[in-house]
Amino acid sequence: MTTETRGGTKETPGAASSTGGARHPPTSPRKQRLELAIKVATFFVALYGFLVSIEAMGGAFKLFGTGFTATLLGATTNPVMGLFVGLLATSLVQSSSLTTSILVGMVAAGTMPLENAIPIVMGANMGTTITSTLVSLGHVTRTEEFKRAFAGATLHDFFNICTVIVLLPIEVATHVLQRTASALSGALVGMGGGTFKSPLKAVVKPASHGLEQVCAWVFEDGGVPAGVLLFVLAMVLLFLALRHMTQVMRGGVMGRIERLTQGYLFKKPLRALLLGVLFTAVVQSSSVTTSLVVPLVGAGVLTLDRAFPYLLGANVGTTVTALLASTVTGSAAAVTVALAHLCFNIAGILVFYPLRALPIGMATRLGRVAARSRWLAAAYVAGAFFGIPLLVFLLF
């Protein structure tokens, strides 16, 4: 409605503008809460799919090479070969816990010398990061996200690489990790072991197992063909889950997630480190716990500085499974292998947390390069986790 004035017409307050159209009523608080609940539910459904995809990828890699892994570990002849054998074996099964548990059994049975096992443990620490690196490829269609995500994934790689470069020569020359672990093993031998069921695996495993059963039904003989199909299905699920997770975070939930992560969970380095230790010890998979932060880093919710202590904690937490397995054997040598894994990770933290600018800077630069030339990201995964270890294995 309008009223005449000396200067023309004037719009009556509250009436619709002739040019702007009808005003949209403000969203009611009830509708806002409903929309938020839908977004949160969507995020957790996508998160569940994300976790199932990681579990399924591990199952696919095990179909490729579980039997081969034990044979590979037994072929170690020197520390350098042991390092790359551990890297390759863990890349095949996507679990440093599984690799070190196999080692524990071999050392306990007397089929592998203790000094050969420790370089393999170092390689296992490097190989377990393949999962988070594969997860980062899910962001490849968005340049800025991919740059951050790939840097977040390879930060774990560079920490382990730097730690190996420093500690492997020292261990070969002095056996300091072996001696320290041997001294500590006396307190654990004979105390009895135990097992712990991961609650996350209990929730995720049925869906992952269902995918494995479908692939086994398609290829009756199972083996490598079933593993390839399972891996493809897992990667499709991973990409879809990541897409929905990042869409939800960009659609209004990001602020709340950022306040929870940057403002509380990861605010203090010690808190982030302990979170990584405890979460990984409960889940019994550093592949899962480290992969969870990749979408957060990719979305810009979490910085590399804040993620770094958490990744270090995950490295420590992943040693729990092998420690439990070693105490069951009652073998001092087996317990020493598990403790050497723990000592290696603690020593790496003591050396490289103060020097964290080095691995963070290396990961940041690689993320920039990978974002510009994305084929390099695939080449990095293929070369670092499979190509170079296979080449060393063939040469030695």
Order of helices and strands: EEHHHHHHHHHHHHHHHH
Radius of gyration over C-alpha positions, nearest whole angstrom: 25 Å
- Count of spatially separate domains: 1
**Which geometry do the CA atoms define?**
globular
Approximate helicity band: over 70%
The largest sheet has its strands arranged as 1-2
* Distance linking N and C termini: 90 Å
Q: What percent strand?
A: under 5%
Keywords:
about 400 residues; mainly alpha; two-stranded antiparallel sheet; 16 helices; globular; disordered N terminus
In short:
With 396 residues, the protein is mostly helical. The chain has helices spanning 29-73, 79-93, 96-109, 114-127, 130-136, 143-174, 176-185, 199-218, 223-265, 269-283, 286-298, 304-317, 320-329, 332-352, 357-372, 375-395, and strands spanning 2-5, 8-11.
How would you describe the overall organization of this protein?
- The chain contains 16 helices and 2 strands.
- The protein is mostly helical and 396 residues long.
- Strands 1-2 form a two-stranded antiparallel ribbon.
- It has one domain.
- The radius of gyration is 25 Å and the shape is globular.
